[in-house]
Amino acid sequence: METSTPIPTPWPELTDLAELNFRHKVGIVAQRGSREAKVGRDIAVHAAKAGVPTLLYTGYPPNEQTDWLAVDETPNPTPADENARAQRRINGEKPSFVVIERYERLSPTPPPYREWDDPIDDPDEPESRADQLMWSVREIRIDLPLLLTTVVDPEPQLSRRMSTWLHIDHPAMVMTDVCKPTLVVHRTSPQTVDTRMEVDPHEYRTGSRSTLQWTPLNLRQP
């Protein structure tokens, strides 16, 4: 079910910037090992606490559970899995929000078997992993806000486009083809995070940078 009201996040400035509403696909890129790397879990738990039926795909279930949060630990979900799972009710209601942490775990939906298929005579080259990932996201056909997250190893260089410091096939680069907006985030102080709008449906915002108030929710969590 589409909604015009943005899904709430723990950080109001991020809520305004991400625009998690309607059927938008939003991507967030953070550095591996940083507290921002678990932004998907933080947002999912916060939304569920606010009464939003939320489906979270993660390999690291949050310690805190709520009635409006459903956690799926499938290691490599397919688009078909997610399309079907989004129809299952959470506390009596259909999901209104889906989060996929480390979205590069997605696996393509296997094609239907056809007896006349002859792979020997198939002239097409195998799809790259980047292409498989892109098509897997595009095959997620849900009329809900969808948040995807991924991580990078180097420190994010917010003054430059990602294409200058990441390989074109990196999941963060693939994300820019399927998620508008895609945000790159990097902590600059205990209370603030700098962001770069790597790509955005509003062309004037693409490449823009912002400093957001973003205090970690629980400094004791790994």
Quickly give the structural class: alpha/beta
Rounded to an integer in angstroms, the radius of gyration calculated over CA atoms is 18 Å
- Overall pLDDT confidence: 91
* Strand neighbour order, sheet with most strands: 3-2-4-5-1-6-7-8
- Overall spatial form: globular
Strand composition percent: 15-25%
What is the string of helix and strand elements?
HEHEEHEHEHEEE
Oligomer, anyone?
A: single chain
> Helix segment count?
5
Biased composition (Polar residues): 207-222
Keywords: Plasmid
Region (Disordered): 199-222
Characteristics of this structure?
222 residues, alpha/beta, eight-stranded mixed beta sheet, 5 helices, 20% strand, globular, plasmid
Outline the structure in words.
By secondary structure, the chain is of the alpha/beta class. The chain has five helices and eight strands. A hairpin with a 4-residue loop joins strand 6 and strand 7. The protein is globular. It starts with 11 loop residues before the first helix and ends in a 9-residue tail after the last strand.
A few lines on this structure:
The chain is an alpha/beta fold and 222 residues long. 19% of the residues lie in helices and 20% in strands.
What's the structural blueprint in terms of helices and strands?
Layout: H1 12-18, E1 25-31, H2 39-49, E2 54-57, E3 69-72, H3 79-85, E4 97-100, H4 129-138, E5 146-152, H5 171-178, E6 182-187, E7 192-199, E8 209-213
Parallel strand pairs: 1-5, 1-6, 2-3, 2-4, 4-5
Antiparallel strand pairs: 6-7, 7-8
Helix pairs in contact: 4-5
Region (Disordered): 199-222
Keywords: Plasmid
Biased composition (Polar residues): 207-222
